[in-house]
Prior knowledge:
Layout: H1 2-14, E1 62-66, E2 72-79, H2 84-94, H3 108-114, H4 119-131, E3 135-139, E4 145-151, H5 152-159, E5 163-167, E6 173-177, E7 191-195, E8 203-204, E9 207-211, H6 215-219, H7 242-253, H8 255-258, E10 278-281, E11 286-288, E12 298-303, E13 312-322, E14 327-337, E15 346-353, E16 358-365, E17 373-378, E18 386-396, E19 403-414, E20 427-428, E21 494-495, E22 498-499, H9 501-507, E23 522-527, H10 533-543, E24 551-555, H11 567-580, E25 585-590, H12 596-609, E26 614-617, E27 619-622, H13 627-642, E28 646-650, E29 669-670, E30 677-687, E31 693-698, E32 700-701, E33 706-707, E34 711-712, E35 734-735, E36 738-741, E37 745-749, E38 752-757, H14 759-777, H15 785-795, E39 800-801, E40 825-826, H16 828-834
Parallel strand pairs: 23-25, 23-26, 24-25, 26-28, 28-30, 30-36
Antiparallel strand pairs: 1-5, 2-4, 2-7, 3-4, 5-6, 8-27, 9-38, 10-13, 11-12, 12-19, 13-18, 14-17, 14-19, 15-16, 15-18, 17-20, 21-22, 27-29, 30-31, 32-33, 34-35, 37-38, 39-40
Helix pairs in contact: 10-11, 11-14, 12-13, 14-16
Amino acid sequence: MRTSLRLVASCLIAGMVLSACGGGNSGGGILPAGSPTQSTGSPSAQTPTSSVPKPSGALAYTDMGAAPQTTPVSITLTLNYNHQAQLDQLVAQQADPTSPMYHHYLTSSEFNSYYAPTAQQEQSVVFALQRAGFTITKQYSNRTLIEASAPAAKVESYFNTQIHMVNQGKYGARYVNVKPAAVPAAIAPLVHAVTTSNIIVARTGAHVRSSESLSSLIASTTLPGVPHVPAQRATRKITLSPQMRARGAMLAKYATPFATGNVIGNPGFETGAFSPWFPCGNGYATIDSSNPHSGQYDAFTGNLASNLGEEYGLDGVCQQVTVPTNGQLSFYVDEGTSETSTYNADQEADLFDANGNYLTNLYTENGNTNGYVQRSYNIGAYAGQQVIIFVGIYGSGSFSDYNYVYLDDASLTNGSSPTPAPSPTPVPTASPTPVPTASPTPKPTASPTPKPTASPTPVPTAAPTPVPTATPAPTPTPVAGGTCNGSPDNGPVSGSNGWLATGVAEAFDYPVQHGCNGAGVTVAVEIDTPINTSDVAGYLSAAGITQTGTITNEAVSGGGNASSADYTETALDVETISGLAPGANIIVYNFPDLSSQSIEAGYNQTVSDGTASVVNSSFGGCESSDTAFTNTTNTIAEQAAAKGMTFVASSGDSGSDECGTGNNPPGVSSPATDPYFTAVGAVNFTDTSSGALASITSGSDSSNGFLSGGGVSTIFALPSYQQGVANMVSTGRNDPDVSLPGVGVMVYANGSPMQVDGTSWSSPEFVALMAEANQLHGSPLGFVDPTLYSIFTKTGYTDFTDVTTGNNGAYNAGTGYDLVTGIGAPKGWALANAL
């Protein structure tokens, strides 16, 4: 019986020529229709995709001219699948309840044996690159990506392109191809896309509302367009977490021994990380190595050039200390700005007490220091007290201005007798680094040379002709049903810093409330920082939830930076999933940054591993800014779908204006618009006294600049699963698919609670829901978009809640599907059963 099913399925997958399938030659073996040559996989029918990345808004860059010819440049080639048309058919049938292939998925070995590029095809590309002078830095078991590096001169010559250095604002010096890369004819039939830049193409969407990082006293005191008024400082206040209070008590206890030396920890950032400093305000401060006053590192806040735009609000670095007797504070800053009045923007340093109350301003100016200067203040008036030191900038958000500060070598010691009031004393360093006033020159960081793999493939004398092996199309098999016997979320629905897991689980009737807590299911979080599990423990303690699943960090391409400003996003993703699906296992695939090559590597490693069944992406960027990236991520997601994996992405936090055009035209966020991703938007909601859903509107928070994303793709056509659905715009893929809460969630990051907005919350909520649904059904549900729309067209709002109020700029929420909230909000338990 099983053999018969496999034969029928094989016929459906690949159109086999076999008498048992009702066709042709009974004496032949099982072969794909046509010949078993390279053309069967149809790679020659495609033109490799390459683009000139042009991110906008906060991701925009300034072209600094041609890269030095010896600049190390990393590239990524995405290879074509074989039997692409059959793969498309298979994935469609796996999501079709009427097909014998419904929910029958391929193992990694099965996919690799038939649809992946063959070993010969991969090696043909590898050999060609090596002969051209490239070093192969990584290959994958699924043979989908090839990563390599070479000096800029070789990259330009081989791909007939031009590599320029750019300044990408807070992301520093990077390189980009300013001419589309042309894949040489010898390997073009095998290549799907090529990436030859390392610019950042996506950003996270965790909008911090109030936290230990001072965002409550910063972001909530002014609104866009309202000038910065120093007199408002005295009204600012933050609420400190139990962890911060405990740290303060420790500092007070040991104040005497600390007072004999420098009280400030990691004064020159020479650990290469912040701690015990922490990014505060907007949270965009970074550890920098391009302009240290001494040693190797400094902290940088702001933007270096006017066409990158000025930050809105306060941003900088903070550290809590106990002031010693006659405390003498000093630090070095290198500043630059195009602003001329502190009424609109400035560089500044302030003191706050241990409870977050404003104490005093140390200095405020529009400085162009042309190198490092020392600031010195006697703060002995606060001897014995715990204070928070802030050094950073304030910006008006002007698109035509810039404002920045480098900070290094801070010191707080037992100095001489205090003076009555702080008084800044700028003292130039012996050898200041010149920085032009009008157009400060960005200070690029040298790009590291990628390390080759442990066992690089030797360069042969001749390249073999790529010929796929005549392998029968594999037939996937289903997994038996599962059971649900876990404990429901039963903690507080919310806290002083926002919603907790139980609040969402009850209001949206998550399967965890019915015993399905995700046990036995593994999910992946794609992000550029690893997770500190002590933060997760802090969140779960506040949420009153016991986690039984595991959390592991998996470094990709060297791994991410734990001190990155994106860490809040990592904490949000992991804590959301662990709170809503506490039985699920979580793997944090962390990579160096949110460049196209890093994200592609993270996705491909996850799919190649084949361990996770649901994958989260709480980041995005303008879909049209890098079409090679958009196509590559969708290609990898299709492979994931064939293996039974669900790829999920947040729909964006800039409403319908993801591309920063002022909605002329509107723009959408990638990778959410990839057809093989489920795009998740955001809603605001309230609950009843019993925890049930009381009201729901589209997601927005005007005080925090958050507006849930949605719109119509200009890259991908309307997919078949959206065709025939009322209110669809026919010109392209409509986004989002569904929506979940995105305003006011509590997150623990760096030991402190904070409140966050964004589709960055709604995306991992859907991942948790899918983990529980997978447990309920006892098998992965895979690519669920066709099923979601099929359920919706058949049963309407039996399994969803319609969201009819709100807008995202260009589009309004309304009855039925809309470009603000998609179908609407899932009714967790009902939808899980219907899937």
